[in-house]
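Feature request disguised as a bug: please show the residue count (266) next to ChbG/HpnK family deacetylase in the output. Example input:
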Amino acid sequence: MKKLIINCDDFGWDAPATQAILELGAAGRVSSTTVMANFATAADLRALAGLVSPAFSVGLHLTLNAGPPLSAASAVPSLVDADGQFYSSSQLWQRYLRGQVRRQELKTEVVAQLRRLVAAGLAPTHADSHQHLHQYPLLGPALLGILRELGVGRVRRLTAAGRLDGRGLVLRAFAASSRQALGPFATPGALVSTFSTEPASAAGFRRGVAAAFRQAEVVEFMSHPGLSERPGSPLMRVPEYEFWRGGQALGLLRELGGELVSYAAL
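Example output, currently without the count:
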């Protein structure tokens, strides 16, 4: 039987996302989440710790491109701007390509984010990254190497299964550039990102999962649910939340010959 992980990204990003993920996790509608450790509050982490089980796993949503670092800005100066905030994804990548980012500072911040989860009683089962930084050309392999050094054994594999738009083609190129660096990790064989480009629906779920199941035995569905939309974000969080909450995904999954599992089962 095929296996599907439904992972909710961005836990801790804001209250609407955090509350939506807690509700869906408690109801058994999703099987995994990844935490933005530099945004999540202590209360967020305590609530999440109460949901952890073999059926619901928690990982790190490595964030090096939004908000402030968990480390002191003085400890990671090559990662932050004059205001002590992380650079954007494109700025960080360009700085890395120019040799302006120090690997030891990347490692310092990754350690800080992992330690925050562990201190809250959340032993991370896996990792991914905000806006797929861990699969950017050159930067991605460096981040994957650090995660491996720190004992992370499972990560997201970016494949953009079922996406034929321009961004999907870019993501596929990124995926190809980091394929070798992913070798030591356990990963799902394909990633469904259908709901990143269209409102969540049964048809979109069926199409995306069916395409991914043709590629792999274990598939991850990337989700970004929220109780409200985030200003300035292209994500359609409310339709995702409502779709998962409705519960029809599990019936559709059975029809497609799959079962819901968590990253812990990978």
